Amino acid sequence: MCGIVSILSFEDDISKKLIGALERLEYRGYDSAGLAFIDKNSNLQRIRSVGKIEELRRRINKITIKSNIGIAHTRWATHGKVTEGNAHPHVSNGVAIVHNGIIENYQELKKKLLKENFEFESETDTEVIAALIAFHIKNGNNFEQAFKNTILELKGTFAIVAIYEKETNILLGAKKGSPMAIGFSEDERSYYIASDAIALSSLAKNIIYLEEGDIVKIEKQDKLNYTIFNSSIHMTKRNIIPNNVSLSDVSKNGYETFMLKEIFEEATIVRNIYNNFDYDINISDLDSISIIACGTSYYAGLLAKYWIEDIAQIHVDVEIASEFRYRNPVIFSNTLYIFISQSGETIDTLCAMRMVKELGRKTLALVNVETSSIAREADYMIKLFAGVEIGVASTKAFVVQALSLLLLCVKKQDFKIDFLEDLINSVLNNKYQLSHIAEKIKDSRSFFYIGRGINYPIALEGALKIKELSYVSAEGYPAGEIKHGPIAIIDENVYTIALAPFDKYFEKTISNTQEILARNGKIILITTEKARDHLHGLESSKNVYCVFIPDSDEPYTSFPLITVIHLLAYYTSKSKGYDVDKPRNLAKSVTVE
Ligand code: M6R
């Protein structure tokens, strides 16, 4: 959470590059933003604003910036409210810093600095870092040494970049727990430190991902140089790799929003993962599989549990990473531990994986961002091939997470990939019906998503999607569980989305929808064509609206159902006038606990 970008350059106006890069990082947080630079008279200047980056851009466009060193930040608030005063960069005595992460010992450090007469103006944990660097400078250290001393005193997680108005040719960065990359422009006239390669698309031809505890110094003399120090402050080398993220990966390609583009990619990316799936992982000899993840990735794991147990007859546990890592879990020897993450940076999933590794077990990661921390630290990796996912609500990544787990337990040559593509396309072609339904349901007080068996994890995913995009409470429930309490909520102001394809659970789920109708609840029934003859008049009830998808059997049916619930969440949010790509209070990459 929070996005960082910084530059040291031979060019004169670095602000446009910083703002452009910051906009590409907005998915990491967007409650406020800011930029600091050192002008030609060696004065540190700072501009901050509350709200999305376009507001910061507006302010910056009104002034002329002549500078070749700067840092910028987009915030997702942890410590301190969303105010301009809490927005980064934070400044102390000519030092400015941007930070992603949480400083756990900031209270203790702040007390010490207050005694030294340092002043604080924000409620953040971050401001203490700027003051601590300034404190070490005051005690006779140069900027580099003061930065290193500071980093060694910090507890918690961080990616930090700092500049100092009295040493204008040095940019310093440090990474522990939060991602950070160095970027090099093709002409070698600009070097960058940023949260990820997406920020640096179109700016950096090559990049280096820093490792845990690394500190980087970028220096400008007659040319730009960089030095990396490891956690013991010894000079070290890290691999330089090409920056594969192109501008088209991070553009909307004609779609109104990133989320819609990404839902429409669901039909094509299933083929990407299918074509590239040549992993030699034999699960048949395992006693069990343990899947650990957060949010939508966790639901992909739950979905796979049904397939793997059904098809391969192997017991599967699925756990939420933030719970798993703080329990004292029993770790089995013949169990495969799978960690799922779109971003590969979710801190709870990463730490859960590290815990399993420390206990001596091999780990397999399913990740979309192949250069991410989880991808790099796992023993084995399955790349998801979804392409860059920008919309904060995860959609296409869920589809490929589910499909890659399915491909672990079916014979690839028997899998009907053309058929699957057609199924998803048929839902995409039906988008107008779903946008029409969204208009009907948008004022619902709350939502239930119900399903039985394999439809239940999809119900959970549907509820999460509508909740995060439409800001109303929504619950995913096993359909049979509704009468054990939740049915009390049902009245004419509540819509239930019933996922009931014509499968072995169909009749039972239909009975549950009757129970809801009997209490004046309203139903959106998502079912398959074959069910038309088995609805017993349900479809003509004024409180029921049916969506029919083409007939198929498991494991195929789940995929068009997923696309339906993604489109429904998308259009509901749109019809309420919300920002679907950047829903309030959220960030895409959850790098704090
Ligand atoms: O990057 P990850 O897959 O590890 O992210 C996990 C969750 O933070 C993520 O799925 C989140 O729940 C999404 N906003 C859901 O749409």
Q: What class, by secondary structure content?
A: alpha/beta
**Sequence stretches where pLDDT stays below 50 over 5 or more residues:** none
| DSSP helical segment count | 17
Strand content: 15-25%
How many strand segments?
25
Mass-distribution shape: globular
Q: Which sheet architecture does the biggest sheet show? A: 8 strands, antiparallel
Mean of all residue-level pLDDT scores: 95
What is Rg?
Answer: 26 Å
Task: Provide the helix percentage.
Answer: 25-40%
CA-CA gap between termini: 10 Å
Bound ligands, each once: 5-amino-5-deoxy-1-O-phosphono-D-mannitol
**How do the strands of the widest beta sheet line up side by side?**
3-2-4-1-10-9-11-15
Overview of this structure, please?
It is a single chain. The chain has 593 residues and is α/β, with parallel strands linked by helices. 32% of the residues lie in helices and 25% in strands. It has 17 helices and 25 strands. The strands form 4 sheets. It has an 8-stranded antiparallel sheet, with helices on one face. It is globular and about 85 Å long. 54% of the residues are buried. The model has no long low-confidence stretch (mean pLDDT 95). Bound molecules: 5-amino-5-deoxy-1-O-phosphono-D-mannitol. The site of 5-amino-5-deoxy-1-O-phosphono-D-mannitol has 15 residues, from helix 8 and helix 15.
